[in-house]
Amino acid sequence: MNRILKLATGLMTCLMLTLLILSPAGAAPAQKNLILATTTSTQDSGLLDVLVPMFEKQTGYFVKTISVGSGQAMKMGEKGEADVLLVHSPEAEKTFMAQGFGVNRRLVMHNDFLILGPANDPAKIRGLKTAAEAFKKIAQAGALFLSRGDNSGTHAKEKGLWKAAGIAPEGQKWFQQTGLGMGETLNVAAEKHGYLLADRGTYLALNKKRHLGLEILVAGEPKLLNIYHVIEVNPAKWPKVNHAGARAFGDFMVAPATQGIVGSFGTKEFGAPLFFPDAGKKPESLGL
């Protein structure tokens, strides 16, 4: 009897050792599907085409990317329809966090907004130092301005700039809202030879594919900084969200290796990066 017991114990030990040897180094996630709601600029610029496959390969998660404006992305988070957000509307993000919809908001990167327009520049804004000056001249000239009008981070920034200029453009003949994402609004502005506010990354990426005929007319003002955060949707409000996956994605976005890729993305094609890594920086250093 003892002999049989010893034999059985030995076989069990061998089986356990075999399973340990054959098992992968990292356990597969229990819930593999992860919903990422993000601004259109991260998708249109091509950055997520690089980062998402890397994340999936490293972690075993399958990412469903929903590219919408930052406002819509946060609405999805409020309803528990996304697991993690990558957005660029700081004031709206603060409200989102204060209302308890998100946890662990982390600084990821920035680029900047540009005021673009046709080469002939009918409003004569080229080289102006501030967006407020530029917007005033566009309004005074009655020159066509294309607004996204979609409650995105870009739209929120644009509304703030109009307010700072003391102008209410809604209802004016020269002011048109597309209700579209960044890439599509750039295409509309190109076709109509209008002005618009756009993020540098999307503009450079699209202009490379198809010369838009739009030029950078105003840039460089601190108010035009475009800052991105990653936010996990609060599992206390929505227990069914994939919080482990959301945390893994957030960790991935601020990891040194990922930050290095963010900082070099676009350099070969455009001679300069489209985004600048900010993980670990104090928000005050970016004017937040």
What is the fold named in CATH at topology level of the largest domain? D-Maltodextrin-Binding Protein, domain 2
Major sheet, described briefly? 8 strands, mixed
Q: How many strand units?
A: 10
**Poorly predicted residue ranges:** 1-25
How many separate helices? 12
Radius of gyration: 24 Å
The CATH architecture assignment of the largest domain turns out to be: 3-Layer(aba) Sandwich
Instruction: Report the order of strands and helices.
Output: HEHHEHEHEHEHEHEHEEHHHE
Which percent range describes the beta-strand content?
15-25%
Average pLDDT score: 89
Count of discrete structural domains: 2
Shape: globular
Ends distance: 74 Å
CATH class of the largest domain: Alpha Beta
| CATH homology superfamily name of the largest domain | Periplasmic binding protein-like II
Which secondary-structure class do the elements indicate?
alpha/beta
Q: Helix proportion of residues, in percent?
A: 40-55%
Short description:
The protein is α/β, with parallel strands linked by helices and 288 residues long.
Structure explained in plain terms:
This protein has two domains: about 30-110 and about 225-280, D-Maltodextrin-Binding Protein, domain 2, CATH 3.40.190; about 110-225, Periplasmic binding protein-like II (D-Maltodextrin-Binding Protein, domain 2), CATH 3.40.190.10. The chain is built from twelve helices and ten strands. It has helices at about 1-20, 40-45, 45-60, 70-80, 90-100, 130-140, 155-165, 180-190, 200-210, 245-255, 255-265, 265-270; strands at about 35-40, 60-65, 85, 100-120, 145, 175, 195-200, 215-220, 225-235, 275. The strands form two sheets. Strands 1, 2, 3, 4, 7, 8, 9 and 10 form an eight-stranded mixed β-sheet that branches. A two-stranded parallel ribbon has the order 5-6. Helix 7 links the parallel strand 5 (about 145) and strand 6. The model is unreliable at about 1-25 (pLDDT under 50). This is Tungsten ABC transporter substrate-binding protein. Pfam families: PBP_like_2. InterPro entries: ABC-Tungstate_binding, PBP_domain. Keywords: Signal.
